Amino acid sequence: MATTMQLQEAWHKVIGDDAVIRTSARWDGMVKHLGYISIDLPERVKDNLSRAITTDRQLVMKSQEALREAKVVPESKLTKTAWAHLKLARAIASHFTDVAGVHGAVIPPASDRTRTAGLYDRGTQEIMLHLETLAHARSTIDAMVHELGHHVASMRVDDPLKAEDLQPTHSEAMTFVAARIIGLTAEKKFDEYLKEAVWQ
Amino acid sequence: MPRQPLYPHVPKSRMARLSQDELRFLPDSPEVLAQTVRATGYQDKLATVFQEAIARAKKLK
Fold it and tell me: Which residues of B touch A60 (CB under 8 A)?
């Protein structure tokens, strides 16, 4: 019988370094989001290989565990520009119901194939923006449109899957959020937060 | 040493609402953020309206 290492070597050589075993369609979106692809296998093969090869669920859960290590950066430790952009992000969030907080943070990569620029925490309804994201107004605004999209979508649906990335409900919520932010900006609601802003 | 909660101020009841297969953390890469905002069709309008607002705030206009 092949050893774990032999199975892993064969898998990486034949299937690829970016492939995991597909166990459920539920994880397809997040697997893709993490820079991987899910491979369907016959049940018997799946059972044998899953002792050596990462499954979709394992990949996603490992990512969730890594993200738990995200660290909020105290406001006093932020650069002047990052602090200005965080205040802008908070002002934007204040126009949407029940966002519990927006923080500058150091966020671990979600996988070995993706960096993390922004994060929505469904447990706390808080948004985390990586310090690199807060370096520019443009990336801060992009992140807020996306993360507020998760928040709005989560409030609108009973099935949590529908609020995740690549889901139509999230895309629709993002469009709603972007349009609302444009309207508020045109109404000069954020001007006081933009004096120190650096666009990109 | 026991792991400290990331958000000690958040009521536990909110955490308890998450079901077993519900992902707590929804992470996004810089590339995904840019792509998805572009997909809304509002990326250019966002850029225009914010750059105008920045100029206004800095009294460059």
Answer: 23
Query: What ipTM was reported for this prediction?
Result: 0.92
**What is the nearest CA distance from B1 to chain A, expressed in angstroms?**
15
State the pLDDT confidence band at B61, using cuts at 50, 70 and 90.
Answer: very low
Sign of CA dihedral B49, B53, B54, B60: positive
* A30 interaction partners in chain B (CB closer than 8 Å): 23
Hey, what are A102's tokens? Answer: 């927006």
Do the chains contact at B53 and A145, CB–CB below 8 Å?
no
Angle, helices A168-186/B30-39, rounded to nearest 10 degrees: 80
Percent of chain A with pLDDT strictly greater than 70: 100
The three-state secondary structure class of A130 is strand
The letter for the amino acid at A107 is I
Residue identified by tokens 């447990």 is A123
- The per-residue pLDDT for B10 is 52
Q: Any CB–CB contact under 8 A between A115 and chain B?
A: yes
Enumerate residue ranges in chain A where pLDDT < 70: 1
The pLDDT, as a whole number, for residue A45 is: 84
Cross-strand pairs, B26 = A120
Q: Which residue among B6, B37, B50 places its CB closest to the CB of A146?
A: B37
Q: In the Cβ-directed half-sphere of A54, how many Cα atoms lie within 13 Å? A: 22
The C-alpha atoms of residue B34 and residue A6 are separated, in whole angstroms, by 39
Kindly state whether A190 is in contact with chain B, defined as any CB-CB distance less than 8 angstroms: yes
| Contact criterion met (CB < 8 Å) for A68 and B6 | yes
pLDDT in tens, B20-35: 778 999 999 999 999 9
